[in-house]
Amino acid sequence: MAEYKGGPYATKAEIRQIWARCGDILHRGTLKRLIKVKNPVQNNFAELNEWGQKLLNLLSNHRIISLDGDTTFIAILGQAEDVQVAIGVAVPS
User: Per-residue pLDDT tens for 38-52?
Assistant: First the structure.
């Protein structure tokens, strides 16, 4: 299996942590409840920037292989409109 040489990228465990953390942050309650609570103003988003960069690194060059192993989807994401996509299909021998 080919290994990605770039980095740092989000690992499977980190994606689970990011998913759980985002759910906790996004689903805090009703707007009425959020307005009442005196939440501190947050202006340092270093952790959010790190997550975003790791996810971008992970997705910028990736492949998806079908369960049967016969089809592969390859995506290479570049700047703005620079996206390359290829689909490979196994040829029966």
Answer: 666 667 778 888 888
